[in-house]
Amino acid sequence: MFQQARRRRTRVAAAGMAALALLATACSQSGGSGGGKDETLVVFTGQAGDYQANFNPFSPTLNEGPGTIFESLFYFNQVRDEPAKPLLGTEYSWNDDGTELSITLRDGVTWSDGEKFTADDVVFTLNMITKHKAMNGTGYEGRAEAVDDTHVKITFDEPSYMEGPQILGKVFIVPEHIWKDFENPATNTVTKPVGTGPYTLADFKGQAFTLRSNPDYWDGEPALKQVRYIALSGNQAGADALKAKKIDWQTGPVPDMRNVEENYPGYKAVTVPLNQTVLITCSNAELGCEGPQTDPAVRRAIYYALDRTQINSLAFQDTGSQISPGFVPVESGKEIISGKLKESLAPMEPDVSEATRILEEAGYTKGSDGVYAKDGRKLALTVRVVSGWTDYITAVDTMAEQLKKAGIKLTAQQSSWNEWSEARGQGDYELVIDALYPGPTPDPYYTYSYFFGTETTARVGEAANPNFARYSNPEVDKALRELKKASPEATGKRQAQYDVIQTELEEDMPYIPVLTAGTTSQYHDAKFDGWPTEYNLHAVPAVWSRPDQAQIYKALKPAGE
């Protein structure tokens, strides 16, 4: 689903003068990115290769849209403890037993084509995602009805408190008068998006596209008039463009990230621990996965063979931090990391003897070439990674050297982002390096429900959304159902379910924990005011984090205004 996303990162490979020439052209087409009070923000999301025109907010391969073009009912800031911010909705409340959610909508909102926004659009969107599983990345199971034009009531068969932030903050509302004609909205390519958001699509080319401020936006036209998204061919091209002040915002690695202000005058950087870097495994043979990684023993052996300290240093400039095998955010959720885990944190140093013990107990024997095998099949695995995502490529290359010591052969398979994303969604891989993302609030329930619940996966060859590992565990599903019913204040009841989920994940490891990623963005502080900083995180400061990016765009103003 969203993000998601999941979620592109600034990870690109070497580039040359051709990339800079393209960038200069893109900037000039959008009004440039030089000094003065330029009202165009040029952003680099890590797009390697041409964009494919698609602004469907429910597609895993969308370019842009959630938050900017299409809005949710409320905005939840997952990095700061504060009330939800009203957007298309203004108020919401639960009944006493958590089976009915009532929402008041903003009056006077129009779609960008001039049609009136009403409760019917909300009901249509919610009904649509229940009919199309591939669109239902939150596992929503409610029944929505329009009370009148500005009120919606959603009922559930059982208490569903945890559904609230997802429905309110992670479902992007689309216009019924357009989408009702889509034969398959889950896969329909949207090239002319109509939304209620602060921006509309101004132009599109494969190498760059522009969003323009919506003059009829219900909250007033943003001061930031244009956002220009560009594709570059390399990380060096991104660094060079930053140096030349040709781009204004990117999220990801640049050389010597600790000294951005010195190396890139006029720019600043902010780093926050956010997503959890993992090796996604196509884990479930019953759903069509093939390869050695379908064996939990192989996944656990890889887990122990990794030297996370070295990976952090060589690939991530020591911006990463420890990760829990139970996938509770370490920094914000220490108190709910289960005491029943064998290890509360993944080891930073390798334990090759433990890795080999696990493999040998599972029936693997080491060949003359030093690689383990079982039933005549060598323990050789391929990791899909996007061409040019240099930190991830370095991480995989480093892992390959580390795993040799444990008798496991690892090979990187590089491809374009579009091909990589398609393979990840369809299950056409053995391993993928990527990250798991949190939900609308820091509660780990959301990460669990997105990536570990049976409801959000599919057979190989069908689109999973976003349980790409094809993981299905009845104990985890049962615990998720209990968590959804429990009030957020019922800490004891909730912890019992967290314990179940975390211990099952530690044993099964459908996603092999690597590190908690330190998400770093570089932004043009001299050109625009209003950026989130570590002292004022009014939104997740990552260009690919949706809908946070829209909150940032709305806050930005040309410097000096």
Describe it.
The chain is an alpha+beta fold. The chain is built from 16 helices and 21 strands. Strands 8-9-10-1-11-19-12-18-16-17 form a 10-stranded mixed β-sheet, sandwiched between helices. Strands 4-5-7-6 form a 4-stranded antiparallel β-sheet, with helices on one face. Helix 8 (296-305) runs antiparallel to helix 10, helix 9 runs antiparallel to helix 11 and helix 14 packs antiparallel against helix 15. It is globular, with a radius of gyration of 23 Å. It starts with a helix and ends with a strand. Mean pLDDT is 90; it is low at 1-36.
CATH topology of one domain: Dipeptide-binding Protein, domain 3
Arrangement of strands in the largest sheet: 8-9-10-1-11-19-12-18-16-17
Determine and state the CATH class of one domain: Alpha Beta
Topology, number of strands: 21
CATH superfamily of one domain: Dipeptide-binding Protein, Domain 3
User: Regions with pLDDT < 50 over 5+ consecutive residues?
Assistant: 1-36
Distance between the termini: 37 Å
**What count of helical segments does DSSP give?**
16
